[in-house]
Amino acid sequence: MSKHLIAPSILTADFLHLENEIKMVNGSEADLLHLDIMDGVFVPNLTFGFPVIRQIKSVAKKPLDVHLMVVNPDRYLEEYRDAGADWLTVHYEACTHLHRTIHRIKELGMKPAVSMNPHTDVALLENVLTDLNMVLVMTVNPGFGGQKFIENSYDKIRKLRRMISDAGAETLIQVDGGVTEENIGDLIEAGVDVFVVGNTIFSASDPLKVITNLKNHL
Ligand code: DX5
Ligand code: ZN
Question: Beta partners for 136?
Answer without folding.
Answer: 115, 174
